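Quick one:
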Amino acid sequence: MNKNQAYRPTTMGPNGAITTPHYLASQAGMNVLQNGGNAIEAAIAAASTIAVVYPHMNGIGGDNFWLIYNAKEKEVKALNSSGRAGEKATIDYYKEKGFQKIPARGYLAANTVPGAVRGWEEAYQYSEQNLGNRYQWSELLQAAIGYAKDGYPVTPSQEHWTNVNLNEQDQDFRYLQRFDEFRKVFLKANGTAYRAGELMKQPDLAVTLEGIAKEGASFFYEGALAEKITAELQANGGLLTREDFAGHRSDWVEPLSVNYRGYQVYNLPPNTQGMASLSILNILDNFDVSAIEEGSADYYHLLIEATKLAFADRDEWLTDPDFVTIPMDELLSKVRGQEHAKRIKFDVTTSMEKQLDPKGDTVWFGVVDKDGNAVSFIQSIYHDFGSGIVAKDTGVLLQNRGSFFSLDPTNINCLAPNKRTFHTLNPALLCNGGEPYLVYGTMGGEGQPQTQAALVTRIIDYQYDVQAAIEAPRWLYGRTWGASSNNLKLEGRIPAGVIAELQKKGHPVEVVADFTDVMGHAGAIKIDSNSKVKYSGADPRGDGAALGF
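Output:
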């Protein structure tokens, strides 16, 4: 693919930019930027809006993570707003009920407190204290409230994933319409999915958002809403309590960082898999990637093999650092990167025995404002439509992130009360000379580190335009639901000769559609260090838009 060839143009703006996987969220954030708001304020407007208009991918019943660049202080801040398992969530509880693994759907899947709303508020308060806010808290939620109350046009993505979940045959994911409140909120009166373009309203969610707008996060975690959510969960065998909600806190954490080609790359520490995303780049930094033809079999092979080595470290160590001491300095050291690089052979592939998680529906977006402040943000309910449980008359769809805990007490990610689970979510930021150069990320579970590596290598090593880098053919090493082993999924635009060469190296290849959302919805904003022009792109695999002004 030509490094300047793209189906969509790269969006350019001299003042600010935003890219999200839903155009209405991009518009909500851009409206804030154009009226003098900063990157954090725009991010809150976009995050609350996309929680309404892209409900199969995220919502206020999920978690989020933030990377924030403060231009005044020239520092990168990281906020972990993921929820912890409830005080009653124990391995014995599930085992006594006959479970060998935590159910993926239903009341027992909703075993971690949603952290999203507290994350918005924590970021807002940081902005108020450090950047100077232009907007009142309540103003930033008005777009979201309007779409929930008055309706929004359903996207093809929402129609597709709703129908998938109405017809899902897998025992763990069977028929979300079995949940009364799911039917009430997400299906039409005749029990069918909303079709693309039809107007969907969420009046209960509008009332909930109005309460949050008026009272802040305390409305969600400490008031009548928390009582309503937890009372329903416990009445149906669930685990979360009022005390779990009231005790939730979001944490400012020290971001992880590695050097790649002289750029400093930042990500979130555990319990996120940011360590894997950085580890891949730490390995690749030992190769002259630009000397390898982009899009060749050797290019894909190198990045896939680096991914496997990074994932091996991740899976050995990644969990809540409050429960295990993780040797992060060693895992992301230059020496570790060199050792892994020496293990990569270009004529043969290595096998990875662990079956990778095929799910992870999420939204990532990026924002840069006129003062150079930047946000890389990610928000999720884990699987499409999360646990499938909507707390009655609240509109709050609860995540199933806690279903990723293991019930094996020897597993690094084993379930324990008040513990955060392994999170695939990880927003990224790349700096040059202490200032943001690339704000980037994607949705897509195990695919996030892989796609982040694709974006960085294509933009840094091959000088691709932002939009062209996003659109270029992608790959995903992992498995599909029901499969017992991992394979290599390749978009159909990859030439047959390259596919054949990868098979010859030993990769078990599956060719998928040319532009499939299996690869996730990626986005990026590049900032020219001299002109300060922002170059942004959005993924045609999603429903997003990149906007600048």
